[in-house]
Specification:
The chain has one domain. By secondary structure, the protein is mainly alpha-helical. The N and C termini lie far apart (57 Å). 74% of the residues lie in helices and 0% in strands.
Amino acid sequence: MKKYPDFWTTLLGKGPTGFFFGFFVISLICAAALMFVELRTRNADSLRSPQRFSFRFWFADNVARFIGNPLLIFLAIRAGIEYIPPFGMLFYSMGVGFGSDGLGILAKRMGFLTTSKLAEKITEKINDEKKV
């Protein structure tokens, strides 16, 4: 950490590194708790999900959440740690963790963490090739 202090300060903020990672882990725990609550209340009668619980299906169905949520949580904690005192950061990090799905929805609307535009372009190219 001493070799590149500007890099680490930019990445983790000016405060102690332990604070940053502590708040990050609190947010991840809250996000995981939210996912397990949703898992327990899943609709087994849905056409989209198998009748019996399948960990493989659940992971495949939520792979974007497993990748996107930690990234969004990291960015939200990094933005908040600059301006919020440590006591407030505790509640902020819990809110970020429980609201990480909302962060994902917001990021999708803004065009982050989505490949729909890329998929649309590829679909257009494929459709154009079929016409020729």
